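Posting for a labmate who doesn't have an account.
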Amino acid sequence: MQRIHNLGRHAWILVFFWPVILLGIYGNQFIYMPGTQYSDLVISHLPNAIFLKATLAAGQGIPFWSPTILSGYPFYANPLSGLYYPPGWLTLVLPWAFGFNLLFVAHLVFGGIGLFLFLRAEGISRPAALLGGLLFETLPKLLAHFEAGHVTLVYAVCWTPWLLLSARVWGNQGWGSRRAFQNLWRAPGIILGLIFLIDSRWAAFAGLIWLAYTLLVVGGKPYVAASDQANPLFSSSRLFLLGKVIAMILGQVILAGFIAAPLAIPLLQYAHLSSRASLSPDEAFTLSLPPARLLGLVFPDIQGTAEWIFYPGCFGLTFAVVALSSRRLRARARFWLWLAAVSLVYSLGSFIPGLKYIAYLPGFDLLRVPARALFATGLALAIVSAMAADGLAQQPFVSFFTRKRDPRLSLAGVAFFALALAFGASVLAHTFLFTWWWGAGCLAIGVAWISLRLAGKLGPRLWISGVFVIALINTGVIALMSISPHSPESVLNEQAAVVNYIKKQPGGIFRIYSPSYSLPQQVAALAHLELADGIDPLQLATYDRWLSSASGVPADGYSVTQPPFKSGDPAVDNRSYVPDPVRLGWLNVKYVIAEYDLKPVAGLALIQQIGTTRIYVNHDVLPRAWVQADSASTPGLIDAASVRPAAITRYLPDEIDLNASGPGELVTSEVSYPGWEVWVDGRAGTLNSLYNLFRSVDLPAGQHTVVFKFIPYPLYIGCGLFLIPWLTWLISQISRARRMADQPDRSRQPS
């Protein structure tokens, strides 16, 4: 065992090996999945970072409102804004692609180290714990979601091992003891709240994993051991300990709420006003894992949907079989085997009758894509693999198994099944299916390697070294095959000719609308062009309804894109719909850009075609702000000839200053949202919401100076709540230091 321990001392370098190789090869390139032309990193995270960097560089401070897409939205309430996770700000000072890739690699290593430390705290030997960390950080699912652009989701998942480690360490410190409070910074509630700030979507899954682990594993042990076996199950000592565990959990949940408050409170308000609030169970359970995709346990998928990829490597399934074949290993890994099974079943979502009605539960009504629970499956299988490898590396490991439960027959069956499927699929496809044969072949090699150890043919040092090598080769090849790099020039300079043409056109502030996503959001952000369309998981319901009528594209349920793309092909989906120039004009849309000819409509005129992109000018465009007659006396939409434009003197994300002449109603082509306030000639005015969408204010006769300013009160409340636990901890530390200073130095007193 000492030789195995020494191996663990040096094998830690493998935890860094794969991610560093990945960064070295693709350091300054945007990583996509093969066969895809879109990535959420480029669509959402990159434009948000560009906007944040530009606002800070202009000396305007941290923006709370963004005018970049959807005619403006509350930036501070958007979970994808990147405001609340300081490490994410590293991308603002590095080349864009390199910055995101560096953060991805750093989080992989961070997650691997976290799982290693957690497994060590669980009593796993150093080499087996390193193996668990390696299997976790090389999960193809983590890479697939990064390729799909779900960067914050990957960051949050990589914090999950640290949440488990915190639960273990916190439990060992006495469930709320003074010492535990002194180490508040590493309490489970702190990390759970941080996970929410990183990605609120994963926080629900992480919270459930932590809760189950705390109740059933960490809290269950002292509960069971509280009294001897002769005492009744619900003895006073056991009930007392159970009460302490539940109180600790409630305290940590409250603490997590304080930490998450800066985002949670604004997000609750935004989500309530968004189209996501009316999410149906069918919409919430979109992209449920098809049962046929359960073959992903054996065969890697390098071109499929990222949500359905969960290949655990060639040892994920085999080590699970080993653990199930041993009573001792099964007892040790019981919780993680159940977690893998439950998360796998939940990921099937709508394919399990009645399961989708979970979406009616509070919190789950805002979650989509149950297949994201597969992250928990991968994590659980990595932990099970470490526990099984730890058992097999022990001497004598034979005591783990009996002849009746010898796993070699089961392992051989799994390998035969995989090879037979690979052969059958290749015959039916009339071609050699590399990923099928690679998955089956690597699994067969893994089974053979485990069988050699079970037969006593390999010593523990050589055997576990081979496991490391096989695992790295297996997932390393899959990773290199599944990456499609895109140069920064191709991503950031897309539609450069179209952007240059529009930038040269005269005429103040305006917006652009595209029914075919012809102006990518990252390009528009770099060019400081504002879009009336947009892609984001959260959108104001009132705006969606207006844009649906303005674009002519029907709103059929929830969509992350506006306008929706029914088949997922923006180049053709909306070509049959006719936009309304007047309603687009109210959104200050001056140009409409499409990849096809729009049906003739009065008000829109084709002025240029660059490649396949048509550029139309909207003659019915209204200025960004104007004065009209009282809306109560002039029902219906007005046109540009019926308004008096207002002169904008200052236009910032969070503030608009302008001069306008009354009498009438001053209307801005800006989205109304709680937090916007108005001052007329230095006095607070009453902000109206025309058509429940546009900010407006009544003006008396004469010339006036009007200031619209966004004040995010929910953020201020959230930040105040965030400070409460830290101030409490600081006060307690100061009081403790004073008490210690007031105590006499007993070591100097005579005995």
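Reply:
Got it, the structure tokens are right above this. The domain at 625-712 is CATH 2.60.40 (Immunoglobulin-like).
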